[in-house]
Amino acid sequence: MFTLEQIKDRLAAAFPGASVEIIPNASPSHQPSLLLPAGQALQLARFLRDQPDLRFDYASNVTGVDWPEKTVKEKVKVKKIIDGVEKEAEELAERKTAAYLEAVYHLYSMALGHGPLVIRLRTANRTDRLTVPSLTPVWRSCELQEREIFDLFGIRFQGHPDLRRLLMWDNFEGYPMRKDYVPAS
Amino acid sequence: MPQLNPQPQIKPAHEGVILTTVEDLYNWGRKNSLWPLQFGLACCAIEMIAASMARFDIARFGAEVFRPSPRQADLMIVSGTVTKKMAPQVVRLFNQMPEPKYVIAMGACAICGGPFRDGYNVLRGIDLYIPVDIYIPGCPPRPEALLEGLMKLQQKIAAQRLTGPDRPPHLNPGASGEFPVPQYGPHDLVGPQLAKPAKN
After folding, report:
1. What's the predicted TM-score (pTM) here?
2. Rounded Cα gap, residues A96 and A150, in angstroms
3. Most CB atoms closer than 10 Å: which of A21, A60, A179, B182?
4. Among B119, B186, B197, beta carbon nearest to A173
């Protein structure tokens, strides 16, 4: 069993240009995850599946997360001139977080008995640049779950063999699991 | 010439003869052979299946012959959550059932949407599209509750008049057993409804 840092280092060694990032998780479940760059996600996923000591051969679960834009208030240290003397003071500053959608994959190794490894793919925004590569060519079990994410969150999975709506009807408009979705009546 | 015996030769009660009305006989036959349509929508269907098994034994009421075809069914048990995607198929199946036909709405979801009422894909009660005879509350109702609902439906059938304004639709040439099938719209089902859903 490898730690997340070790897996990240393996990926960084095998793919020098890829920016793999560890997303911490401070909640009690403590499941930090790896954010894969969308451009090379397919090769990275194949590497995770095919390396003889990693062998993540089973994607047990794929889900989506909606991260809308949010205003967070932070204390920022600024230098101010108070009574002619420059002093450091704390000030509340507002900052807007980036808005994007995520697909989250939970991987296990049936052959070696380890896991889960949580990997994430992130879209550029949540309006018009919604494409991430499909991992169905790597793990066949992702097919219906990626369709469900497409149906409910609106992420376009490039390379998916059959990207249609799954739970809603075909001419339905909108993505019901997004945080800003308002159901009809 | 023999004299006519003023007493009847056959004593009905002693010779196994009963006198009844056509209406009672007809309704007695109908109420004791209600064949449900074999389909289930959610967890209520599990209770419905339990009711059909040996412990609860819905066969005691003549309703054990679950028919896989709507053409042979008398009773539609809407057992579970009706999603908006499924609702047109449920209405279409009901339209394909021959008269006389009855509907039991089993469980909170089939009655009004239940805990999923405010969801994006749950119908707020099947009675928006087809007429419901018996409502069985519960989440899910126990098999005993389904049997109670079935008995209530039998009482309702036994009390139906075959003539007059309240006669069942199959004896009324002016009545239609067809209900409009809702269509998929861009956000919701579109098409005429039997009632407006209650506002929260």
Report:
1. 0.82
2. 26
3. B182
4. B186
